[in-house]
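Extended Data, record Large ribosomal subunit protein uL1
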Amino acid sequence: MGKNYDDSLKLIDRNEFYSPKEAVDIVLKTAKAKFDETIELALKLGVDPRHADQQVRGAVVLPHGTGKQVRVLVFAKGAKVDEAKAAGADFVGSEEYVEKIQKENWFDFDVVVATPDMMGVVGRLGRVLGPKGLMPNPKSGTVTFDVAKAIQEIKAGKVEYRVDKTSIIHVPIGKKSFESEKLVENFHALMDAVVKAKPSAAKGQYLKSVVLSSTMGPGVKVNPGKVLD
């Protein structure tokens, strides 16, 4: 795995479950790459995503953002086009972007927002946007007539979380250049949202495991019982 990874492992007790603050501090020490590594949170949930009533999905604005410049594509028409542009959208349009994605395999964007009246158009991209997690969805606030608010929140650090077929959620909470306290606050904001999103149909232990890591570093286990402390 490399010398840096091996050195990082020495900083971690693999049998220990750390508090959020301890885990963040250790992850920052293990982020030894020369670039600004992303700090990511991985959650294993006690849900069965094969059942519709056990889906966990939503979005939350991290108080200190993600440290990433997010490119937003908006599908809109009429006055909403000007509203989206004024709010800072990187790309705004309709059919032309459907064709660009389909014919040129263009994906120079990170988030897609659409007004409800454009979902018939956007729906034609379901097969390509869906697998990439880019399909607009009302639950994440990306299908809305209030495009200005949606864009502003995304640019401010709004992240979407969604349980995958293995019952795991992967979400970035910042960069290694962030101060420890800011990462901890982002961590708590995300965990609070995920805990509140617990499906009523989910039985038993909801938070099975909570792990923090940097892009190139090993995982650090967080005590599931202390995530909201």
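Summary. The longest strand covers residues 38-45.
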